[in-house]
Amino acid sequence: MTDDASRQQAAAILAMMQTGQKMASDFFEALTRQQVAMQDATGVVAPTLPLPEPDAMARLQQEFAASHMALWSSMLARKPGESAEPVVTPEAGDRRFSSPEWTANPMFDYLRQAYLINAGFLSQAADSVPLNDGRAKARLQFLTRQYIDAMAPSNFAATNPEFISTALDTKGESITRGIQNLLADLEKGRVSMTDESVFEVGRNLAITPGAVVYENDLIQLLQYSPLTETVAQTPLLIVPPCINKYYILDLQRENSFVRYIVEQGHTVFLVSWKNAGPAESGKTWDDYVQEGPLTALDVVRDITKVKKPNVLGFCVGGTLLATALAVARARGENPVASVTFLTTLLDFSDTGEIGCLVDEASVSAREAAIGKGGLLRGQELASVFSFLRANDLVWQYVVGNYLKGGTPKAFDLLFWNSDATNLPGPFLAWYLRNMYLENNLRLPGRLTVLGQKVDLGKIDVPVYFFAAREDHIVPWKTSYLGRALVGGDTTFVLGASGHIAGTINPVAKNRRSYWTSAQPLTSPDEWLAGAEEHPGSWWAHWTEWLKAFGGRQVAARGRLGSARYEPAEPAPGSYVKVRA
Asked: Which of 137, 161, 568, 572 could form a disulfide with 131 if both were Cys (CB 3.0 to 4.6 A apart)?
């Protein structure tokens, strides 16, 4: 190599390092500005964001420069019409650049790989920030990923070859359709994830037959019609989360968890939460506990004349149910025969990615804005959950709907995901502070609900915990910690996949797998090391467990409700149909 060439290469590497330095500097300055803005809005002083150690930053800049030089050299050496071995490749499961247009054209291939190098550099820079606060570190990593995902060349018309090829193939019609899709979504206030015209609650979703047998300001209580000649004498009450519509448990006939339970010979009741409006804007956690699980239990006992029903809580519904049972026990009552918690947190010590968004500043802001009254709009909450998986639940549809002018496929789960619910401000603020921020539920006597000291250890009946191994909303190892908090014998089962796909796993499809172990209480890792994997759905395992608490077989009742609680309207009722 000549002296001139060496000097040119050294200058290029220096320029690349300076580019990396400026990129990191600009990024950290943007994060600092966000922290200052949060402080100005809430009055809560946010922790100062330290910069990475100089040596660590210098190493990253050198690697950054070397990667870009290797990419540039690869592009220069590439012969027309030939492909080149990539310098960097997407992570497994990243489908943004899977179309052949990204590699066929050298310019787009360069854009793709340059973005991946830049993304890796920023991600490593965020990881190297010396933060001892785990929540603050997780928040930094989350914000970094949001920035990286948003800036992908696939998200912009000028840098996405699929946009260009689709526009050419359709003679520009895809651009027109994309603009129409964008305008329609702007009117709806959200990105369309499915063809919503295909589904309707009560027509082809939430169609398990039953009736509303009770209603108050917060719930409608559904009782489902028997599908077997005999049923277990002890009924089952299901408490779903109030942050989503209940029909995730009753989608279509072939994937309805509710229908499956009824088909196994159980009398099933289910709480359908009201989509909060102005009239409910002052409702508190106490209100939800009293008007939800506790009232539903009273009605179920009155209708069936069974003193101790079985109960099941899903996600936040499980947290509410646990609180309600602890209140009942503090009152001297012994209200249930068994408890099932599906993907539920009782200990909030590690709440995953959601937890990184909850800090003193953000909670104080919520308390100031809506803590005394007001609503958290459902769409805001839905957006938070979507951005936890932004490439799958946001940018994929931005590209498909707007850049390529497509219509997303009909998918019942994504229709449900878009059917957001509002939450009362006082309920939300209390929940965020006492669960996510201060983790008070796990401490006996720390919380007072409905005038009673809450102690989960007084829940001294058999408890079945189900968690999902890839759950990013309720991390399974944290869900496992709930075993140590309750007072009864516990069974823990771990399912494959995530928060929803792991839970809604019909037996008939025989997909995925689950893990069981008879080990006594131990650490989550030790439990998994000794667990046995089983193919198929955990549903069958759970219904077998539930048999022990179902009592004797009795003839199925010919009518729903009772003289006191007459059926008011067919399932799914009216509350679930109210759109946010």
From this structure: 137
Strands 513-516 and 532-535: antiparallel
Q: Does the residue 369 lie in any domain?
A: no
Q: What is the pLDDT of residue 131?
A: 80
Among residues 315, 320, 365, 382, the one annotated as catalytic is: 315
The angle formed by the CA atoms of residues 507, 513 and 516, to the nearest 5 degrees, is: 105
Cis, bond preceding 572 (omega within 30 deg of 0): yes
pTM for this predicted structure: 0.89
Say whether both 134 and 219 belong to one domain. Answer: no
Contact indicator for 449, 286 with CB cutoff of 8 Å: yes
Determine the angle formed by the axes of helices 106-127 and 3-42, rounding to 10 degrees.
60
Task: Average the pLDDT over 243-253 and give the result.
Answer: 96
One domain for residues 214 and 133: no
Provide the pLDDT confidence category of residue 410 given band limits of 50, 70 and 90.
very high
Task: Please tell me the distance from the alpha carbon of residue 160 to that of residue 154, in angstroms, as a whole number.
Answer: 5
Residue 500 has pLDDT above 70, yes or no: yes
Bridge partner list, 466: 342, 493
Beta-sheet strands, E only, within 233-302: 236-239, 268-273
296 shares a domain with 443 = yes
Overall number of domains in the chain? 2
DSSP percent split of the chain into helix, strand, coil, nearest 5: 50, 10, 40
Rounded to the nearest 5°, which phi and psi values hold at 383? Answer: -65, -40
Distances (CA, A) of 66 to 13, 21, 76, 549: 7, 14, 15, 65
pLDDT of 35 above 80: no
- Using the CB atoms, write b or e for 507-529: b if 16+ within 10 Å: beeeebbbbbbeeeeeebeebbe
Residue 259 has which token pair? 């229908």
Is position 242 annotated as part of the catalytic site?
A: no
Strand (E) or helix (H) holding 340 = strand 338-342
- How far does Cα 330 stand from its chain's mean position? 32
Q: Is 475 helix (H, G, I), strand (E, B) or coil?
A: coil
Residues 254 and 342 in one domain: yes
Please indicate, yes or no, whether residues 165 and 215 belong to a single structural domain of this protein.
no
Q: Which domain holds residue 142?
A: 8-169
Count CA atoms within 13 Å of residue 424 on its CB side: 22
